[in-house]
Structure formats: structure tokens, C-alpha cells
Amino acid sequence: MAAVDIVGVRKAFGATEVIHGVDIAIADGQFVVLVGPSGCGKSTLLRMLAGLESITDGTISIDGKVVNLVPPKERDIAMVFQNYALYPHMSVFDNMGFSLKLRGAPKAEIDRRVKEAAAILDLDRLLERFPRQLSGGQRQRVAMGRAIVRDPKVFLFDEPLSNLDAKLRVAMRTEIRALHQRLRSTTVYVTHDQIEAMTMADKIVVMHDGRVEQIGEPLELYDRPDNLFVAGFIGSPAMNFLPGRIEAGAGPRFVSDGGVSLPLVAPPGGVGSGIDGRPVVLGVRPEHLHLADEGAAAEVLVVEPTGSEIQVFTKLGGADVMAVFRERHRFRPGDRIRVAPLPGQIHLFDAESGRRLVP
Amino acid sequence: MVAEIPSVTADSAYRMSLWSRLMTDRNFLGFWFMLPAAAVLILFLAWPLVLGIWLSMTDTTIGRPGVFIGLENFDWLSDDPVFWLAVFNTFLYTTVASIVKFLLGLWLALLLNKHLPFKALLRAIVLLPWIVPTVLSAIAFWWIYDAQFSIISWVLLKFGWITANVNFLGDPDNARASVIAANVWRGIPFVAITLLAGLQTISPSLHEAATIDGASGWQRFRYVTMPLLTPIIAVVMTFSVLFTFTDFQLIYVLTRGGPLNATHLMATLSFQRAIPGGQLGEGAAIAVAMIPFLLAAILFSYFGLQRRKWQQGGRD
């Protein structure tokens, strides 16, 4: 177990820079999820941490020691790959014991440690099988077993669940989380799935185009996204955005480009001083819209019941807006409803920079 | 009315069934689909083979149809030192050339599998010796090995490493080494390109996983590359051995089996006895004598090609 420090790290392939200076501090035992759309550099960053890619600039240290030039085998890390990368010609036992065998560990010790890990992961009965004879979930567990056996300082996961079906993915999510609670080892987990990030992480790092957009605890990112990108990326269904401007006055209002006017119920500090007339984007999560007589008029386009809730796609002043209701309203396409955001549940962003305006 | 409908349906289904059963029977259809290919194979491969075996049991010479003499040709060959020399040469030629082709081919494949500049061009160039007609490359080697004009001798002389031209094809040992070298040159591309194809099926993440597991370059080769390449190696080397064992053109152009029969292979000896020598029966007997060895090679490949335990079951 160890802390990991990523300071000013850059990565360039030839003339193309893909990671533009990233700083992340990971405490000992923390479960950190790097999340972002594909091509954001999260996997590259993980591979740099593993030593599979060189570091163009900046430093990565594990347990206080800079590892920029340390080969992977001496970094004392274990990695679970997206395609599991199990050795097809080795049995589950040999797959899990391979690193110990390379290290020259005595047979009895390999046997003991593999069996311990197999017991944790419920792989006892599969030790003689070959990877081809396993299901996707079993392979996933073997890949984790291979990592556990080594008892490394840091666990690295590279989109480990993306090859599993939806149901298994949810189950494995819990299993990985439970494993972390049991082993308490520092973990860096890469995914493009924000639900995985929200449910598993102690700390989420949202990346976009080779930059860190925001670092924080899951609910912190959900409640106070720093910018438009994080606001749109975290949360499902995604946050609604309405471009418009603020009209200060007795009761400050938001007026969208489509003419929708919403009162800013809790006047945010700073409104009125120079913010008047400034182009902004108002963000509101679908679950934070409720039916209100004084709300803005919206036309129902599509209704999707999921059982636990209904998702309603509407047209609100020319913008597509989605609302989610826990109550079982019987809307039909074409219905006109009036919706308003719950008090205090709106986010204002500067239209130009995308930065969060209200502290 | 209602009761009649099932019987009509059943009746028509029964009438349909004979024809439709045949048309959906895998064995019946398979037989007819395979027939054209089987006919071609039997007519042009199996029947000539039978004729060849028959010929080896006659005393046919050019201009005289022979009579059946049983195994007399083989009996005669078993006392023929030239025949046994050819057998020895064939084995030496096949063994040495195949091993060298395998080692160099594997090495070349590993090099080509790395990220090199002009990778596609390099791979195309590697294939050249394989594309050039054997007779043409053999003639080129004939010049390279020429007693007077050999470029190798010329270069070595210029460097002052030798004092007289190397007698490449005139000395028995040199001649053997020379024809083996030419065969290796010609055979490497096949081995290299096929092994390269095999190497590319190995997922890079396996190497990365092994790297993180602490494997050195050699250990990755030993524990990851080699085991995963074994099935391809079995195929490639079986074909390589078969091609080498039955080689004819190179020897025929370079040495015609000389000097002192030192480079006679079974194929060239068979040709020499049968066509220039006119002893068709005896030549056929030499050719037939190759069959057991070729069968052994095929059996080796049959067992080598069988799916290993780790390849069985499940899907990727």
C-alpha cells in the first residue's frame, strides 16, 4: 500500500500532446476513479503509472519514490486489463501464480498464496481450468486474482467491466468495491462510465482532452460541478442546459434565449454586480424539475416509463429538456405541462468559459 | 372439415419429406458437393501415385514396357551405396536447412513484428526470395558460387582473408553447405512471414501483463510468445520440411547432384536414374522410397496440429 503522486505530468506522442499537465494526489488506501470520454487520456495516464508508457514531462511517485524511470516490474503494481489479458495457455492456477513463479518464490508459497486469493474470489473450483473454459465474469475474477496474489502497492484497473453484460457489470462493481474495503489497497480505476465512477470511487478525477476538469468526491461533483463539462458528464440522465442571460432587478430572473423566464429563487451572491445581462448557461438536473403552476410551459414529446420513475422529454422554449418524475403522471405526447426547478437546485455557468458562476 | 385439415397437411408433409429430407440431409448433400473436388484429386493425384507405385514394381525402361518384378527394385536399391548416400544427403539437407530456416525465420519475424520505419516495405522485400522462380534464383546462386567469378570469393580476396578462390561447388563439403545456404535463403521468407502472422495474433496486452508480472524480455519470449506460437510453428515447419525434403530445382540447377554424388537428394537421384538413365522402374522405386518419410512428416504435423488442451472449449 502506498500513496501515489502525479505532478505536472505530460505525455506527447511525437508532436501531438495528449496529456497537458495533470496533477493528482492519491492517498494511501484510496479508491480513485479516472473517468472521461474515450480519448481523454485516462488510459494513457494509467499506463504511464504502470510503466507501459514513458512520461514526457512531470513526475509520478509511488510511496514517495519517483518512478519515472523505474521499469514496471520494480514498481510493485498490479494491473487488470480491459480484455483481462489472461495467458490462454496457462491454467487459472498458473495464471495467478505466474508473477510469483517469475520472482522465484518457492512452490509451497505460490500454492498457498494462489489458494488464498482463489478463496477470496470464489475461484477454488476453477483452478485447473483454462481461460477459454471460463465465462466472462470468471475471467474477470481470475484477472483480479492475478493482481491480488502479488499483494502490490497499487492496483490499477483499466476499464475492467466494459466487456461484461449489464447485470454482471453491476454485480462485479459491488464485488470490486467489497474487495477494496477488505484489502484497503490504493486503487486507480479507469472507466468511461460515470455510474461506475459515482458508485465505486472515494475520489473521482474527471478528465477531458488530456486535462483534469475536476477532482472530488462523487457527490461533490454531482452537487457542485466546476464547469459545463463535468455538469454534463456526471449524472444520468444528463443535466439540462438552457443558454440565456440573467436579468437583475428586484427579483433576479434567468431568461433563456428561447424566452423562458425563471425566477432565481435563492438570489445567489454576486448577482446584480456586473452579472446583469451576461450570457450564461443554466443547468438543471432532470430529477430537479417538478410540476409547478408558476413554472415554464413545456410541450411533452416522448414519455419513457422505467417503472421506478418516468422520463419525460419536452420542448421548453425551443430547447430540449428532460424531466424525471418519481410520481406516475399519465402524460401523453403533445400535452402541455408547467415545470420549474426545485429551489436551490440550479447551476449557473459562464457561457464563454463554461466555469461555474455561483460559488 | 376441421378434422380433415390435419390429415391433408400430414399427407403433403409426408410426400414432401422424401425429397426435402434428402435436400436437407447434410451427408447426402455433402457427398455431392465434395464429389467434383474428390474426382479431381483422385484423377490427378491419387491415380498417378498408384501408377508410380506400380511403376516402381516393374523393370520398365525407356522404350520398353516392363513386367512386374515385385520388390526387386527396392532389393537392388538396398545394396546401392549411391542410393544410401542420397538418403543421407536428403536427411542432412532437410535437417540442417529446416533448423536454420526456422531459427533465422523466427528471428526475422520477431524483428519485423517490432515497430520499424517502412514496415510494410520491409515485409514486402522479405518476401522477394519466395516470389522469384526457384530456377532463376538458383541460376543467380550458380554465379555467386562460380569457381572463377564468385562475388564471395572476390570480396574475401579483396579483404585479404583468403588467398585463392573458394571451390564452392567442386568440393563435396562445400557443395553441401552451398546448396543448403541457397535453400535457406529461398525458404526463410515463407517461415518468417507465416510466423510473423502468428506473432500478430498474440495480443500485445499479454506482453504488457507479463511485463507487469515481472517478466524479462527473455521470459516473455519463453513463457508467452513461444507457447502461443507453437501451433503455427507446427504447421510452418511441417510444410517447410516437406518442401525441403522433396527439393529438386535448386540441386538440379546448381550441382546436378555432384560432385561425387555429394549433393544428390532422393528426388534428383530418382530423376537422374529414370529420365537421363532410362531406368523408369528404378527411378520410380527411389521416389516411392520417399513416401514413408513424407508420411512420417505428415503424421507429425497431424499430431502437432491437434488443438492443445488450452485451445479447447469456450469462445473468445
UniProtKB/TrEMBL annotation, chain A:
Keywords: ATP-binding, Nucleotide-binding, Transport. Pfam families: ABC_tran, OB_MalK. It comes from the Bacteria. Residues 4-234 form the ABC transporter domain. InterPro entries: AAA+_ATPase, ABC_transporter-like_ATP-bd, ABC_transporter-like_CS, ABC_transpr_MalK-like, ABC_transpr_MalK/UgpC-like, Mo/tungstate-bd_C_term_dom, NA-bd_OB-fold, OB_MalK-like. One of its GO terms (cellular component) is ATP-binding cassette (ABC) transporter complex, substrate-binding subunit-containing. GO terms for biological process: carbohydrate transport. One of its GO terms (molecular function) is ABC-type transporter activity. PANTHER family: BLL2173 PROTEIN (PTHR43875:SF10), MALTODEXTRIN IMPORT ATP-BINDING PROTEIN MSMX (PTHR43875). Belongs to the ABC transporter superfamily. This is Carbohydrate ABC transporter ATP-binding protein, CUT1 family.
TrEMBL record, chain B:
GO terms for biological process: transmembrane transport. Pfam families: BPD_transp_1. It comes from Tistlia consotensis USBA 355. Its main location: membrane. Belongs to the binding-protein-dependent transport system permease family. The chain crosses the membrane at residues 29-55, 82-112, 124-145, 151-170, 182-203, 223-243, 250-271, 283-305. It comes from the Bacteria. This is Carbohydrate ABC transporter membrane protein 1, CUT1 family. Residues 87-303 form the ABC transmembrane type-1 domain. Keywords: Cell membrane, Membrane, Transmembrane, Transmembrane helix, Transport. It is found in: Cell membrane. InterPro entries: MetI-like, MetI-like_sf. One of its GO terms (cellular component) is plasma membrane. It is a multi-pass membrane protein. PROSITE patterns: ABC_TM1.
